[in-house]
Amino acid sequence: MSEHPTGLDDPEYAAFAWARYRRLLAWMTLVSAICAVIAIFGLQYFYGPLSWVAILAAIGGIGGSVLMASALMGLVFLSSGTGHDEAVDRHDD
Q: Is residue 16 scored above 50 in pLDDT?
C-alpha cells in the first residue's frame, strides 16, 4: 500500500507552490528595479552625472543583489513551507 505524496512530491501542490514562488519573484523583480532606479537617482544627486558604465554597474549590483536575495529567501520559504525539509529524514526501506 503506497501513501499519498505530500509537499512538493504531490504534483498538484508542487504546481501551486512553484506558481506562488514565480509570482513572488515577479513582484520582487519590480521591487529590485525600483530600488535600482532610486539608487541611481541618489548617486546622481550626491555625485553628479553618472556615466553609462556606472549606471549599468548600479543596476547590476543593486538590482541583482536584491533579486538574488529574494530568490534565495523564496526558495528557503518554499522548501520549509511545503514540508520538503522534513522529507529529507524519510527513509525508504
A: yes
Q: Which three cell numbers stand for residue 70?
A: 529574494
pLDDT tens track for 60-92: 999 999 999 999 999 888 887 777 666 666 666
Looking up cell 505524496 gives: 5
Give dist(CA 34, CA 61) in Å, integer: 13
Q: Extract the C-alpha cell encoding 35.
A: 530600488
Whether the Cβ atoms of residue 9 and residue 87 lie closer than 8 Å to each other: yes
Q: To which residue does cell 538590482 refer?
A: 63
Contacts of residue 66, defined as CB under 8 A and 6 or more positions apart, other chains included, come to: 28, 31, 32, 35, 36
- Give the residue carrying C-alpha cell 499519498: 4
